Amino acid sequence: MKVGVIADDLTGANGTGVKLTKLGLKTKTTFYQKEFTTFEPDSAICLDTDSRYLTPLDAQHRVLQSVHSLTGWQADLICKRIDSTFRGNIGPELEVLLNNIEGSTVVIVPTFPSSGRTVVGGYLLVNGKPLHETDVANDPISPIVDSYLPAILEKQTEEDVAVIELNKVSSGSASVTEELENCINRGTKLVICDAITEQHIETIARAMTDITSSMMIPADPGPLTTAFTSQLMKKSSSEQKSKVLVSVGSVTSISKSQIDYLASKMHIKPVYARPDSLASFGKSWEEEIERVVLETKELIDNQETIIVTTNHSSFPVLDFKQLSKIEGVSEDLLAKRITAGLAEISKRILQNGNGCIKGCFFSGGDVTASFCEAVEADGFELVSEVMPLVAHGVVSGGEFQGLSIVTKGGMIGDKTAIYESVTYLKETLHDKGRILHGA
Asked: Which family would the database say this protein is a member of (predicted)?
């Protein structure tokens, strides 16, 4: 990944550059008028425009020259390093980026927790004090007389400015993504985000990676640029690998041997869902789903294959007759409740994967049918036979249309059957480059 940073002073260029080196990028700081060449695929160039105290027009000229240099270098991402106390020609310089990077939106986060910079309600605080009550108010060249960031920007640019407040950021990346999309849809290209902690910055960065309708440009003192770059690198790495979700609801000894063989060959541990918790219409059903999904969420970045199964030797054999009396429903409904739980788990894992899981393997016809129902799929477009009674198809309709799936009966095959099926699925995904767009 090639990252370009435009900074209005040398200290800022170096500060952000050092953070990018920690991500594994070979980073160089140079000056905006200098020519540069680097051929490393994972690298960063930080350009110092030395424009903080120039006239707005002169500052824009230097930033424009920097944009041309970085686009000529074929940067994958261009970032704007701004002062953590909001000094300089921030508005005019951001205008240049918006006017010369097609379809762009700038996300402004001056927050720098380790330096005491936070943003709440659009107000920038320095060690808890409003910005205009700090020493920057007495800056001899560029005094700051306001702490409300939209007010500062509105004096510098005619672009509309929006604020995504702390309650939205604290609600998670999906909430921030929704707010960003709302801004984009109404044509607002400068978006300030509240943030107090590093976690808030990470949330904003994740939200930015989920935006596909606009080119996201971070404008910050370094933390957001670093977090956003990191997220993009992870996403790129995940997309280069064909991650697969394996869901097994069969409790037969054959299925257990197949799961054990798969886990051993791929050096991974399955995530176990308790069937006694899923065989219920009470709160244990949702609680177990949330627990399993949370456990898998921690594995997605580090494993190419995620296994979820109800098959574990320590789990008790369920007495459906007794359970049906307790629950007041038929034995058949309780059995389907388990497969519905596995289906819901699969659905949420796919949603959390943000498109990095490109294929699923299901063991058991009931598990597959429940998944189709959960994601509102119409059925499958059959592609090929992996082995006798093991089919490869593509989901038709619903939230995950186009998702590759291999299905197998619980009693089918020897101990290598699931491993061979998953290997086949991965090879097929790699060859055809199928991408899941529904998550």
From this structure: Belongs to the four-carbon acid sugar kinase family.
> Measured between alpha carbons, how far is 228 from 216 in angstroms, rounded to an integer?
9
- Read off φ and ψ for residue 252, nearest 5 degrees: -75, 160
Question: For residue 55, with 0-12 CB atoms within 10 Å meaning exposed, 13-18 middle and 19 or more buried, which class applies?
Answer: exposed
DSSP state of 84: T
Interaxial angle between packed helices 198-209 and 173-185, expressed in degrees from 0 to 180 and rounded to the nearest 10: 50
Rounded Cα distance between 94 and 113, Å, is 23
How far is the C-alpha of 206 from the C-alpha of 48, rounded, in Å?
A: 27
Residue 236 has pLDDT above 90, yes or no: no
Q: Are 378 and 397 in contact (CB under 8 A)?
A: yes
Fold (topology level) of 2-238 = Rossmann fold (3.40.50)
| pLDDT tens track for 211-224 | 989 999 999 999 99
Domain boundaries defined on the chain? 2-238, 241-432
Mean pLDDT score, 291-305: 89
Cα–Cα distance for residue pair 348/387, rounded to 1 Å: 29
Please state the pTM of the whole predicted model: 0.60
Q: In a 10 Å sphere around its CB, with 0-12 CB exposed, 13-18 middle and 19+ buried, how is residue 370 labelled? A: buried
* Residues in Cβ contact with 315 at an 8 Å cutoff, skipping those fewer than 6 apart: 272, 274, 275, 276
- The Cα–Cα gap between 167 and 145 comes to 27
CATH top-level class of 241-432: alpha beta
Distances (CA, A) of 43 to 27, 28, 64: 6, 8, 21
> What would the mean pLDDT of 10-20 be, rounded to a whole number?
97
Residue 325 has a CB neighbour count (10 Å cut-off) of: 11
